[in-house]
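Troubleshooting: if your tokenizer reports a length mismatch, compare your output against this known-good record of 127 residues.
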Amino acid sequence: MTERSPQFDCREVSGRRSLDDDRLFKIIVHVPLAPHRIAGWRMRADAQLRAHGNEIWLTREGRLDDYWLRMGDVVNLKRGERVWLSVDGGAEAHVTFTIQCVDRRAGLRRWLARIQTRLFGGLPIGV
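Known-good structure output:
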């Protein structure tokens, strides 16, 4: 799915932050699912899975129940969870995985910009 990097902390964002916060962004991955095929993933970050198109069968590791997802249905998946998906019938479908990420460097950039403004009167450094 996604790999963690030192620059970004991909996790579910609490309700206290708004999506307008410049430290937040979304990663949306669109995945087509072919009929009569099974696709599996281990989630590398908390994600929201949304079904599009034909009915989709979802199995989650460690759960007794399977899920039948219709267009627009959403399931929250946790980091480390393993899932398998398949399409019902002969038509193709697709899913989207949405991950909320926080840019951990944004605070440092704002702090450096304030220091630059105080020291150099807003002029770019090097001018």
